[in-house]
Write a structure and sequence with these properties.
Number of strands: 25
InterPro entries: Class_I_gatase-like, CobQ/CobB/MinD/ParA_Nub-bd_dom, CobQ_GATase1, CobQ_N, CobQ_synth, GATase_3, P-loop_NTPase
Keywords: Cobalamin biosynthesis, Glutamine amidotransferase
Strand order of the largest sheet: 2-9-1-10-11-12
Low-confidence stretches: 424-433
Pfam families: CbiA (PF01656), GATase_3 (PF07685)
Family: Belongs to the CobB/CobQ family. CobQ subfamily.
Helix content: 25-40%
Protein name: Cobyric acid synthase
Mean pLDDT: 88
Largest sheet: 6 strands, parallel
Distance between the termini: 15 Å
Radius of gyration: 24 Å
């Protein structure tokens, strides 16, 4: 049975996910069979495993850091918000329904057997489990029903490292307040503190470190600096979504719809020199991009209505007819069609007209399609003809069944012998320059050379050359980032002490 260590935080976005990923990488580098675990995750960024099960992407990142295949056992409960008051509940990779917050709060302890089944599956096949908490263990109104912080630590008999964000200010109050609000038995399970996002001279901080150790009785095991490492964030808190960056030579605008999911689909473009990826939520912010992306969403109809009411629908239509490339992913693909129907009330119910840019209609089924896919681009005559013959891979998560004129397909899903992945409408004649693309495949841009070829085509449209485009392997890039993170952990965290904590348990 594996030994466990748990990473909790004094607040959301304190750095739990990053520290968990870093520890996974360090343990892997040290020759340990390690896996991440988070009993309950709330996120719109999800991933589909090889078995077709759905899980949070944060644990996928941590699995990559640990060099193990992502498994739904690493994240047995995933909550995908559908509104401010409710979420779709996914248990061990399968959706069991949508619940208001109060209903789920009363129900969630019934999922403890599912949590422990998943945890034990991992523990039987690994030497170390690095568990991530959620929010803060000091949320005293939730303590009685806790299944993700100290409740999970108790179930796994795991010692706890507490991560605190110094960049926001008040770090010592956050540490002291968190520990003092915990019952004595839970406070005793916290074996070390890591201060995260520090800027400045560590010597100025040392008197405070000594005093907080004396007041709490818990040692400081590390002070991590503010790190310039490009690792995927939790979707709702990612700084990149609010970054008002300037447009570069190639400007890609992602429409920031309210329930946007899987925004990490576009991270690869940010690695290419001369390319900007901007997340925009108003006509004023849109500007004149080279490509507009409509991303995935947890509520296609609701976000289509928002697009309409914000004025962005009219602006996207105007740009499309002026020659701007429009690319829709999953829910964004559905929005580009003629009509969306929801006969089972999966989202809003009823029927709604869409943007009318693609010759497709979507009907929401009562069961989601969750599957990993591979395919190949073919039959493209337009701007992106340089993609022909290139393989791609990714995964699908959607309830919609989309009816497509097969004469318009531009890629084939070789894994399941379907031709629905990419479609285009309007003339592909470059003189008309009216090109609309859509796909259900998340991660379609990540394959080697795909994003670079898209950028090359956009450069050519502007009369520019691609000789300055650097060919980047996304997988190699991510591996380097995990190694950089592990180096920072080793340099700034007392790993000997962490190993002692892991060995001693609780």
């Amino acid at each position: 049975m594996a030994k466990a260590i748990m990473v909790q935080g004094t607040m959301s976005n304190s750095g739990k996910s990053l520290v968990t990923a870093g520890l996974c990488r360090v343990f892997y580098q040290d020759g340990q069979r390690v896996a991440p675990f988070k009993s309950q995750n709330m996120a719109l960024n999800s991933f589909i495993t090889r078995e077709g099960a759905e899980m949070g992407r944060a644990q996928v990142v941590q699995a990559e850091a640990a060099n193990v295949e992502p498994s739904v056992w690493m994240n047995p409960i995933l909550l995908k918000p559908t509104s401010d008051q409710g979420s779709q509940v996914i248990v061990n990779g399968k959706a069991i329904g949508t619940m208001p917050a109060a209903e789920y709060f009363a129900f969630k302890t019934q999922l403890i057997p599912d949590i422990m089944k998943a945890y034990n599956k991992l523990a039987d096949n690994h030497e170390i489990i690095v568990i991530e908490g959620a929010g803060s263990p000091a949320e005293i109104n939730l303590r009685g029903q806790d299944i993700v912080n100290m409740g999970m630590a108790k179930m796994a008999s795991s010692p706890v490292l507490l991560v605190a964000d110094i960049d926001r200010g008040g770090v010592f109050a956050a540490i002291y307040g968190t520990l003092m609000l915990m019952p004595e038995d839970e406070r005793a399970m916290v074996k070390g503190i890591i201060i995260n996002k520090f800027r400045g001279d560590i010597n100025i901080l040392r008197p405070g470190l000594k005093m907080i150790e004396e007041k709490t009785g818990v040692p400081i095991v590390g002070v991590l600096p503010m790190l310039d490492i490009d690792i995927e964030d939790e979707d709702s808190l990612s700084d990149r979504l609010d970054d008002k960056r300037e447009a570069k030579v190639i400007d890609i605008a992602v429409i920031r719809i309210p329930r946007m999911s899987n925004y990490t689909d576009f991270n690869i473009f940010e690695l290419i020199p001369g390319v900007s990826v901007r997340y925009v939520k108003s006509v004023r912010e849109l500007g004149n991009p080279d490509m507009i992306i409509l991303p995935g969403t947890k509520n296609t109809i609701g976000d289509l209505l928002w697009l309409r009411q914000s004025g962005l629908e009219a602006e996207v239509l105007k740009k499309a007819h002026a020659g701007t490339v429009i690319f829709g992913i999953c829910g964004g693909y559905q929005m580009l069609g003629q009509k969306i129907s929801d006969p089972y009330g999966i989202e809003e119910g009823g029927e709604i007209s869409a943007l009318g840019l693609l010759p497709i209609e979507t009907i929401f089924a009562d069961k989601k399609r969750t599957i990993q896919v591979k395919g190949q681009f073919e039959n493209i005559e337009g701007r992106f003809s340089n993609l022909n013959g290139m393989p791609f891979h990714g995964y699908e998560i959607h309830a919609g069944v989309t009816i497509l004129d097969e004469s318009k397909y531009l890629a084939k899903l070789t894994t399941i012998d379907e031709r629905e992945a990419i479609s285009v409408e309007g003339s592909q004649n470059l003189e008309d320059a009216f090109e609309i693309y859509g796909t259900y495949v998340h991660g379609v841009f990540d394959g080697d050379g795909i994003a670079q070829n898209i950028v090359a085509a956009l450069l050519a449209k502007k009369g520019l050359k691609q000789e300055d485009i650097e060919m980047i392997s996304f997988a190699d890039y991510k591996n380097k980032q995990y190694d950089f993170l592990a180096d920072a952990i080793r340099k700034n965290v007392d790993m000997d002490k962490v190993y002692d904590i892991l060995k001693a348990g609780i």
